[in-house]
Amino acid sequence: MLNYYFTLALRSLKRNAVLTVLMIAAIGVGIGASMTTLTVFRAMAGDPIPNKSRQLFAVQIDNWGPKRGIVGGDEQNLQEQISYLDAIGLMTAHAAQRQSAMYATGFALTPSNPDLRPFVVQARAAYGDFFAMFDVPFRYGGSWTAADDAGRADVVVISRKLNDKVFGGANSVGKTLNLDNHDYRVVGVLDRWEPLPKFYDLNNNKYGEPEEAFIPFTRAIDQQLPSWGNNNCGGDTVPAPGWEGRLHSECIWIQFWAELPSAADAGRYGMFVNNYAAEQRRAGRFHWAPNTRIHNVREWLTHEHAVSTEARILVLVSFSFLLVCLLNAMGLMLAKIMGRAGDIGVRRALGANRRAIFAQCLIEAGVVGLAGGLLGLALTALGLAGLRSLLSDEVNRLTHFSLEDVAIAVILSVAATVLAGLYPTWRAAQVQPAWQLKAQ
Amino acid sequence: MELRPILSAMRRNKAGAILIGVQMAITLAILCNALFIIQQRVALSKRPSGTDENNIFVISNQWVGSPPDLAAKQQGDLAALRGLPGVVDAVASNSYPMSNSGSTEGLKLNPDQKNESALTALYLTDEHGLQAFGLKLVAGRNFNADEVVDKFGYTDYRPPSVVIITRALADKLFPGKSALGQGVYFEGIPKQVPVVGIVDRLQVPWTQAGGWGSKFNDNSTILPFHFVNAHMDYIVRVQPEQAGRIAAVMKDAESKLIQADRARVLAKTQTLAEARAAAYQDDRGLVVILSVVCAALVAVTAFGIVGLTSYWVSQRRRQIGIRRALGATRNAIVQYFQTENFLIAAAGSLAGVGMAVALNLWMVSTFEMERLHTGYAIIGAILVLLLGQLAVLWPALKAASIPPALATRAA
Questions:
Q1: Nearest-10 crossing angle of helices A354-390, A309-339
Q2: What is the pTM of this model?
Q3: In sequence order, which residues have a C-beta less than 8 Å from that of residue A329 and are 6 or more positions away?
Q4: Is the dihedral of CA B115, B118, B119, B123 positive or negative?
Q5: Domain residue limits, chain B
Q6: What confidence tens digit (pLDDT) does each residue in A8-35 have?
Q7: Which of A303, A333, A363 is the last residue of a domain?
Q8: Which residues 311-370 on chain A approach chain B with CB closer than 8 angstroms?
Q9: Does A234 touch chain B (CB under 8 A)?
Q10: A231 in contact with B at a CB cutoff of 8 Å?
Q11: Structural domain count, chain A
Q12: Strand, coil or helix: what is A100?
């Protein structure tokens, strides 16, 4: 029966070719536009670490008090980053299963071949737990050890890309890298790792790639490597000059993440951070009630508006456009079906019940939706290619079309078209056979 | 033109008329909001930086390690750059307009003030700064060489001896009076710093719509410092006659610096025009995408009207033939469909203007966007009415060409 309906649908679509083409084009264009923007939106709103996004927590501590600096704060008067004092306080307490203070920095890398020019490498200072905590895959070697953290060791973990560039992709574990005139021993080479968004530090380049080199936080502090990210000394007190002054200041420039496997762990850790702030108050450093918070990855991305305003506007506009396209298709479908009222009357008179007419027309709508979806896929590919040429490199990572997106496009197209076809179909089922036969 | 037959015909075909009307309403709502956003982003990307943009390029310099004689090396570099043929002046700076990276300070008018009076971007340059950036001094004077001291990196908090500020910042800090000779205070530093000069305009480094800096776009302060840091920017201005060969001067400058000292990375060398293009690339992208969607929207709506009206015409061929046989002119038939479309479009536009305002209000509250100017709603409504008339023309003409003889033929 279904087969027969399909044949009928195709025949009916062929008979009214102009209307059919218009309908398919309208739906195709609508799907193309909305899928193009939805792909970007989904990449921005995506979960960068799905297996652990509920177990990893960003820590916020208010070390400025109710008097805000030049950068306000969130609804709870909290900032995105913490001070070095608090980072060390939390690291020393070691209250989570894994934890790492971290900050963005960078180097000038001098290649061992004197003919090659030095180049800039974006780096991240972190603790060894960083890699296990964020499930970072290694191609060669592995993370540095807790002893390396404590011993401020000259070790470095490099990205696959940097390893390709400097060591031609070979296993470089044990070799040295000259970073700003200091030799660092390579202990690990990462495999492809592309969390999107770069959730652990959304201050700069949030859709960009992770850093190319990672070194122990303790070593970076020893080397006085400045933060290449956001530095905010908006608090009440003015820091003493120099690096030591920066470390003892209330300037905020460090991100802090903790791994807390269960809800109970998270609850306990939240309490611990609050107690830490209370302790700071007793010690005379804070003059206000403890104000702290932990957010898991998903909460953090929402809190930090990982999805840009532009992406939201585009999704809004393109889905409204899809709605117009569907209304359009609905009008055309209505016209087509009412034009066939005679045929329907004959079929009804020959014994087809309402349900059969309904099913047949819906299948016709489904076929239109499928064709529109396929056209929409082609247009989406075109649209994303257009975005890649229009937008900056940072945003380019957001324009990759996955199999999941293909499925969404086709399902959305068929479902939306069938939905739009419901009213015309219902009208078709209402056709009175006697009336139509008489009119012929 | 009699409206009654049109209305009664529409009443018999409510669904079609409503569908077209709703389509036109949504089209209008999207169209005027999109046009509004497009206009805003275009205006944003055209904001003047206040510098002599066409004749300036920037070299981002990163030293390998931190050489002990950085300050001397930097002065050597600058002397070399200034000595290049075609170069007007060069200066070292911590930042430049449209670089999207820089420092901010909250300025106060007295040291005990709780909140700052104005936010400002900081540009650290010496007495060559005005010349190298091509800024227009509108009051006061440039820095004297003896007011400029070395400042070592970002953890050196020494206050400047004097400052030059932009006109926008002067108006914000000292409304209604001259800022010259007045003093400002930096966060946590009890020393008053006098304003010695005012420049016409100098944009902050940040360009993102609604982002950091968007609230104080023209509030900049120039501080008399040699910024001595492992990473800083050389700002080089060439003579206007040399603008055509600015690329060649850039090449010369780069090789001159490498020659002077190889232990450095010239991370990026670009003209300010290139910096502008990069800074506003995503805004331009948004404008293009919105324009394409708007064009597609208009096309789909128009084709929808053509399709549906054509269908109506084909359904009413006999009736039209009868009307023609009874004496209606071709014009009358065309007018019938035009009036019908006008009525639908007018109703749609009315609803659309309401939807446009509602959509805008929602965006104002969630995206912190600006309120829609009424002009856009009116322009949008006119566009939609015209669109309807244009789209209906072809089917209406087709209807008018139906021969009256059709009425005499048997059904």
A1: 150
A2: 0.89
A3: A23, A26, A27, A368, A372, A417, A420
A4: negative
A5: 4-45+282-408, 65-262
A6: 888 877 887 888 888 999 999 999 999 9
A7: A303
A8: 312-314, 316-318, 320-321, 323-325, 327-328, 330-332, 334-336, 338-339
A9: yes
A10: yes
A11: 2
A12: strand
